[in-house]
Amino acid sequence: MASMSAPTNSDWRAFLGRVWSGHCPRCAEGALFASRFRLRQDCAECGLRYRREQGAMTGQMYLSSVVTEIFAALLVLVVFFGTDWSTSTSIAVGLPIVIVFSYWFLPKSMGLWVAIEFMTDIGNREPWIEERLPRS
Ligand SMILES: [Zn+2]
Hints:
Elements: H1 9-20, E1 33-35, E2 38-39, H2 58-82, H3 87-124, H4 129-132
Antiparallel strand pairs: 1-2
Helix pairs in contact: 1-3, 2-3
C-alpha cells in the first residue's frame, strides 16, 4: 500500500506526464480515452475512476476555455505587433489557428483535469483515497 502523504513535486510531474501522453495517472498503463474526445469511465488496467461523478469535469471545461483564451490573446498580440496585416487578414489567419489549437488542447485538458483531481484527492485524503492511491 502506498503512503497517505501528499504528492511530491516528482509525483506531480509523473502524473502530468502520464496524462499528457494519454495514459492513466496512477498506473501509466491504461488509456485515458476511448476515442479522441471521449474519456473512458475507468482505467482498464488499475480501475482508477476517471469520471467519478456528475459535473466532475466542469473544471476541465474552465481549464480548456482559459488556456485557449490565453492562446488566442497571445496570438492577437503577435499578429498585431509582428505583422502589418489588415483586420480581415488577421482574422482569416488567426481564427483557424485558434480553432485547431482548441481541438488539440481539449483532450489534453481532460487528461490534465483527471490528474489534478487524482493528485488533490491524495493530498486532501478524500474518503475514496484508498482506491485512488498510486501503486508502488
Ligand atoms: Zn490505471
